[in-house]
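Now for my pick.
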Amino acid sequence: MIYIKLLAAFLKIGLFSFGGAYGAIPLIRDVVLENQWMDAEMFSNLIALSESTPGPIMVNMATYVGSKQGGFLGALAATTGVVLPSFLILLAVTILFHNFLKHKKVKAVLKGVKPCLMGVILATGIYMAVSICIPSGVSSHLAETQGIGSGFLAIDPAAYILLSVLGLVTVLYQAVRKKDFPPAALLSLAAVLGCIFYS
């Protein structure tokens, strides 16, 4: 039954995802692609859509995938699955372990997990950049022909320029202003550039 499958899949994601929403994206991607709930290109669009809409990105993604597969009940099952582990863990920590996060060994564990999370998030960013810049089907074509040069010719120039401009703006803003580029402004800029390059 699809509702139980959605609940179990997103329960596992909610239980084993560390580092916030971006750390959970690889887990969601693996589950979604493995069950063929959507393809890689649609998943990339889902990330952008979930980031643009209000609310936590992980919850937005779970709700959309669940809704697409099982309507309202599917959305409810997926959202419940992804939220429930965090809710229960925080509830237990609040009630039973008031000073749990202040414990020296717990701090050491969290400090050790951080580099791994950075690697997972970086790998997700690279995967998204490649999937955006190289059209669907090119990777399989390259695997068959082993023609590396054709891969570079197949890169979408508009996507390459868009990523370069956004990356440059973000880095320059941080260098000049000494603070992060506002997410709302970055999304607005990306939307405007997307209209210019793809209209």
Remarks:
- The chain is about 80% helix and 0% strand.
- The two ends are 41 Å apart (CA to CA).
